[in-house]
Design a protein that fits this description.
With 296 residues, the chain is an all-alpha fold. 79% of the residues lie in helices and 0% in strands. The protein has eleven helices and no strands. The longest helix is centred in the middle third of the chain and has 39 residues. It starts with a helix and ends with a helix.
Length: 296
């Protein structure tokens, strides 16, 4: 799922904060792993060499990208202490993020995992040494950039989908739309089955070990249904080379999955939350009150 899409849908709903954090973390790790596999698969498809040649490259690219991302994040955290309260601190976050990606690409490391590790390192270290006002400003800038990128991605995807449909005859259009609909159904069903199986198995194992479990059937159902796709799915499909086999069908299917999950799952999410009747989570208000008391 797309973290921005899921967070936007859940922002106005009173559900446990732990669940929102799980969905965001799931998206972050899933995107990194999925895009790594995607890049390797595309490289194997368009290359004349056998698939076994990619194994040593991946064995070097994965840990190397993670270590490079951690080093970039730690360096940025150290530099941010000297630039606190200036516009340069916000600009430096952009320079470091894109610089980590470019350097990882040049070194033939996993740029995706490098940026993920970089972001996690920065998020763990920087907030503790940054004034709240500056954090609000930086977060607002990044949220605006993500919003613009989402709009641009949907705009480009719409243009590509229109061109694809114009190149197909009526019989091929119905066949392609049917295939895209099947892909959308498989995506929804497989996620529902996997999340339910994993969360129920995890709860069972924890109960046998005498450990507390924080998930119920209602939590599992909601997490299963929060599978909205967004920018990453669109960008991945559009990044395929123009000569890639069945590229038009893949792009059309990606568009159907994004549109279907946002419309079908997004519009039914709030009624589902009301039906599941989650108890109100007031942990955030309690933490704010505790922080206010500490300031007195």
């Amino acid at each position: 799922p797309d973290a921005a899409a899921a967070a936007a849908m859940l922002a106005r709903a009173e559900i446990p904060r732990r669940m929102v954090s799980v969905l965001k973390g799931e998206s972050l790790l899933n995107d990194g792993v999925a895009l790594l596999i995607f890049a390797a698969a595309v490289k194997i498809e368009i290359s004349d060499r056998p698939a076994t040649h990619a194994i040593p490259e991946l064995a070097f690219a994965v840990p190397g990208g993670i270590l490079l991302g951690i080093a970039f994040g730690a360096t940025l955290a150290w530099m941010m202490r000297w630039m606190s309260g200036t516009l340069s601190s916000t600009l430096m976050t952009f320079v470091a993020t894109f610089g980590a990606w470019i350097l990882a690409e040049r070194l033939h490391l996993s740029a995706i995992l490098c940026v993920v590790a970089h972001g996690m390192t920065v998020a763990h270290i920087v907030p503790a040494h940054t004034p709240p006002r500056e954090r609000v400003h930086t977060y607002a800038v990044w949220e605006a950039v993500v919003f613009l990128l989402n709009v641009l991605a949907f705009f480009l995807m719409g243009l590509q989908a229109s061109e694809i449909l114009s190149r197909l005859n009526p019989a091929e259009i119905w066949e392609a739309c049917g295939f895209a609909g099947i892909v959308f159904g498989v995506v929804v069903v497989v996620r529902f089955a996997w999340v339910m199986l994993y969360m129920r198995t995890s709860a069972f194992v924890k109960s046998k070990r005498g450990k507390p479990t924080f998930s119920s059937n209602a939590h599992a159902v909601l997490v299963s249904w929060c599978g909205m796709r967004g920018l990453v799915t669109l960008a991945t499909a559009m990044s395929l080379p123009g000569t890639f086999p069945e590229r038009d069908l893949i792009v059309l299917s990606a568009f159907a999955v994004v549109l279907g999950t946002l419309v079908v799952q997004g519009l039914t999410l709030r009624p589902l939350i009301r039906y599941l009747s989650f108890p109100p989570d007031r942990s955030f208000a309690k933490e704010v009150a505790a922080a206010a008391l500490l300031q007195l």
